[in-house]
Amino acid sequence: MQVVIANNSHIQYAQIICDTIEDSAKQRGTGIAKRTTEYIVTKIENGNAVIALDGETFAGFCYIETWGHGKYVANSGLIVHPDYRGQGLATEIKKKVFEYSRKKFPDAKIFGITTGLAVMKINYDLGYEPVTFSELTDDPAFWSGCQTCKNYDILSRTDKKMCLCTGMLYDPAVKEHTHKHSYNKKVFKRLKSIKQNIFLKKEKKKK
Ligand SMILES: CC(C)(COP(=O)(O)OP(=O)(O)OC[C@H]1O[C@@H](n2cnc3c(N)ncnc32)[C@H](O)[C@@H]1OP(=O)(O)O)[C@@H](O)C(=O)NCCC(=O)NCCS
Which UniProt keywords are listed (predicted)? Predict the structure, then answer.
């Protein structure tokens, strides 16, 4: 398995990347910011993506986005092909894209929003902290990406203050990135379930 910074030779994988992201979102039934093949191609061309290949077979992907005039960086669109899950590949890809982001944008705050428990665990281990949305970029272009998510209604009605996603942030200005508490799966699971209960209740009632 090789996990590398994507270059023009990887453009051929843009379609399978998009298809795998879309299929997984459908299966999970959760929200996701939709990305076009053209968008993925641009990320690859600009050296803002990491790809994992098993020989010539696509295994995983993640890309970098910059927001707020480069003050914020997000490592988004993480996907591992179903055939390669549960082997630590997402951890490896995220580590690579994180280290690359730190090198390329050393002063930027690195953040993500996710409903995925695996991603929360990976981010936490990399030194991210869970934060409120007010700590994240206020770049409208970032938040408008949420419009294609099926939970966008929640974000709108909370005036972009909260949603089912949890915001996580790595602040390079903070000297110490070791956590006071070790990762507690139960805490993140509970938080997710509380948010789902609160925010999706209204939806259920409507139906
Ligand atoms: C989420 C995803 C990227 C994980 O890929 P993966 O290669 O299987 O992940 P890893 O093997 O590196 O696992 C990372 C950690 O998360 C845990 N994990 C994996 N899947 C999990 C799940 N569904 N729920 C809770 N924890 C999970 C693993 O146990 C592991 O923890 P450990 O370090 O204590 O062993 C993959 O399932 C995927 O592509 N899903 C669809 C797309 C998606 O959800 N993307 C994230 C959008 S924010």
Answer: Transferase
